[in-house]
């Protein structure tokens, strides 16, 4: 049961936060393990609900899954491609990775259209285009995608737009295709490299992950291995933004600073003091910030997943800032909630125009994960009163141990149940 998140803001965050493994890697690596014929061990998994749901799904498909701390042992030996039109697959978006993984291993998959954070329609046409190019037949049967291939063969696939999900899904299926697959206009996010690293440790032959052309030479069989997941750059970025917004002083530990370069550059441009070390970043907030313009782009640009948290920070800046999202057309469901808290923000097409000013406490609702992050950051800045945030089930999908973590940093945060 999840309750309401209550925040009495106005306290600068101070201390150290240790970042967990990346959600958006974990949700691809767990399905990727299906491609192996022996045990895969994943370490540094985040303790978030999406990870638990994926473990349950693998169990429903016949795998045995053991969890101990932040590690998961997946024994896929007895797993089968059982149709999953409904149920758990509807609870998260990343269930679409079961399509590529089951197709690669068994030549067949039936998976219900994914759920997850539906802040706007999120099509999967590029995933399907990729499966078809590899020789699969794809049909939509009552809201479930049925994919079948007698034999998968390598192909050259040019993605119409840079898509993280399509790039990974095609890598999964192509790892077991006959011959060579080239993905052109591929996504370059660090999570793509993490998935390619796991697949290569399992015996795949993937080159170029992290560049716009990925070359995959299909292999006949893949085996188990042990893999440690990269740190969550979005979780890290959210705490960096929260530290700046509360004028705090926070050491964000267990990160790869290079993954956060676009955010670091923008924070510095505003006037936040940042100190980078090998595996940590210290963020020291300042009393006054300059207004800035931010463009959310595909990696290595400013991450769209940090766009909503950044909106909250920009309410704490004198003057007008403009934040434009070039990845999603309309990812602004957090804006009306921030306006309830007194923010002066207008959405114009793909942009949010933000006038700085003090926020006040209110009752607000998270409608998706990062909208939720923007609300807890905004609430932390409010000098008086208590902000009540509902819809916390979305927030806990991406922020492991949020309440204890914020408390350790000195925030006054608690949960209430009706
Ligand atoms: C991944 O979603 C992340 N999710 C998202 O994180 C993130 O916002 C997104 O990448 C962009 O960085 C996971 O990794 C599980 P895309 P994904 O395919 O792969 C359009 C979070 O908060 N598109 O890169 O689904 C699409 O509509 C979340 O952690 C098509 O039109 O995103 C979007 O505008 C939310 N057709 C753009 O491309 C397609 O077939 C990028 O989407 C695929 C995508």
Verbal overview:
This protein is α+β, with helices and mostly antiparallel strands. The protein has 13 helices and 23 strands. A 4-stranded mixed beta sheet has the order 21-22-1-23, with helices on one face. Strands 2-14-16-15 form a 4-stranded mixed beta sheet, with helices on one face. Strands 4-5-3-13 form a 4-stranded mixed beta sheet, with helices on one face. Helix 11 links the parallel strand 21 and strand 22. The chain binds ligand EPZ. The site of ligand EPZ has 25 residues, from helix 1, helix 4, helix 5 and helix 11.
Q: Give the names of the bound compounds.
A: ligand EPZ
Task: Indicate the proportion of strand residues.
Answer: 15-25%
CATH superfamily of the largest domain: Enolpyruvate transferase domain
Distance between the termini: 10 Å
Number of spatially distinct domains: 2
Question: How does the helix and strand content classify structurally?
Answer: alpha+beta
Task: Give the helix/strand layout.
Blueprint: E1 4-8, E2 14-18, H1 23-32, E3 40-43, H2 49-60, E4 64-68, E5 71-75, H3 97-106, E6 108-112, H4 125-133, E7 137-141, E8 144-148, E9 156-158, H5 164-174, E10 180-184, H6 190-201, E11 205-207, E12 213-217, E13 226-228, H7 233-245, E14 249-253, H8 261-270, E15 273-276, E16 280-284, E17 293-296, H9 307-314, E18 320-325, H10 334-340, E19 344-348, E20 351-355, E21 363-365, H11 369-381, E22 387-390, H12 392-395, H13 402-408, E23 412-416
Parallel strand pairs: 2-14, 3-13, 9-10, 17-18, 21-22
Antiparallel strand pairs: 1-22, 1-23, 3-5, 4-5, 6-8, 7-8, 10-12, 11-12, 14-16, 15-16, 18-20, 19-20
Helix pairs in contact: 1-2, 1-3, 1-6, 3-5, 4-5, 5-6, 7-9, 7-11, 9-11, 10-11
